[in-house]
Amino acid sequence: MTGLFDSYKRRIDYFRISVTDRCNLRCVYCSDGAVPHLPRLEILSYEEVQRVIQAAAELGIKSVRLTGGEPLIRPYLSRLVELINQIAGIDDISLTTNGLLLAGYAAELKRAGLNRVNISLDTLKTDRYEAITGSNKLPEVLAGIEAARRVGLEPVKINMVVLGGTNDDELTDFARMTLAEGWHVRFIEYMPLMAPAADMAKWVAVPDMVTQIEQSLGRLEPSRVASGAGPARYYRLPGARGTIGFIRPMTECFCSECNRLRLTADGRLRPCLLANDEIDLKGPLRNGAGLEGLKQLIKEVVASKPQRHHLAEGLTSGQRQMWQIGG
Ligand code: SAM
Fold this sequence. Notes:
TIM Barrel; 12-stranded mixed sheet
């Protein structure tokens, strides 16, 4: 078998790269408010990221997703897209963003080689958007979605983290957007990363989401998406152009299909979102490690991928928060 496989025979072909730990939102469920920033020198340069991806591509990585923090606040992000686009073997470059700045960058990102975007949006209500994110810029996000679709960053997927008592009354509103606007919406089970026990009250299970949508809008039929299915299961409402995906980190433990590694902004390679093991690549990179040395380190991380996460049983201490890893 060619390619990169972990000890559980999962093919690893997908790299998520956090390009910054900074964010222009303060979503209540993502950070606990304290966001100490890494000093600039601790962050990998674009050329360093390119070298890591070059090594990864030689091992079999094919898809790259840029995330953060908020990736679009890092200056000249399209330059990084261009550098990654030059790497042989990388055939899909995507971006996860809160969409605030997307309208201004969509065209230039597309020209640089970005294929598609996922946009995080948890509510369609202005007041609620401000309560969740601390920002009143919902219109900018909606403009970002339109701009992404206009320039062909398709499929544009809208990611909604479902929070009980906060936005779970909007599931049908989002689902209706797959009919009215052809949106591809994905509902994500909230992961209680900060204070697991207390946070469980906010947690809504996917089967309850499905019931709510089907009661109002009809039966969900299994569907496929154009690209990048990842851990989601996709469905379609009768007559809808768009799809509805569900991501169930809690009720399904999506680990059996895990295909990814995560690079933090400060150059640590993580085998799993929800385990604390990391290997430092920045030190070796800056001490002159060549591609072969980097490949060896990447293989070590792949070999250390755990079979599954243990979020439901509680986290290990020192878990990085989502904004530090990139989701
Ligand atoms: N700033 C970008 C954005 O908003 O998409 C990228 C980084 S953000 C950390 C990536 C994704 O993680 C977002 O879709 C966010 O909603 C999701 N996320 C953050 N904390 C989460 C949690 N506790 N459970 C589930 N998803 C979470």
